Amino acid sequence: MKSDIRVCSAWESTHERPVYTLSETCPECGADAENSAPAPFDPTDRYGEYRRAIKRRNRE
């Protein structure tokens, strides 16, 4: 059995901490809920270096 645990997409601006749910929307604010699991690692990811470069650029 697979359950899709989701997190409120607007939790950083609306809530103090992440709000997790199984539904399509946040039970507290009504915003869309998105998948909370990270993307699986793929060593053949052709665009991995670009994503990491964007992440490094956003941290600075």
Description:
The chain has two helices and three strands, in the order E-H-E-E-H. The protein is of the alpha+beta class and 60 residues long. It has a three-stranded antiparallel sheet, with no helix packed on it. It has a domain at 1-36. The chain has helices at residues 11-14, 48-59, and strands at residues 6-8, 20-21, 33-35. The chain is flat. The mean pLDDT is 86. The protein is 27% helix and 13% strand. It comes from Halorientalis regularis. Keywords: Ribonucleoprotein, Ribosome biogenesis, rRNA processing. Belongs to the NOP10 family. This is Ribosome biogenesis protein Nop10. One of its GO terms (cellular component) is ribonucleoprotein complex.
Spatial shape: flat
For the report, how would you describe the main beta sheet? 3 strands, antiparallel
Going by helix content, strand content and strand pairing, the class is alpha+beta
Uncertain regions spanning at least 5 consecutive residues: none
Q: What is the average of the pLDDT values?
A: 86
Number of strands: 3
Distance between the termini: 41 Å
What is the helix fraction of residues, given as a range?
25-40%
Alpha-carbon Rg, integer: 15 Å
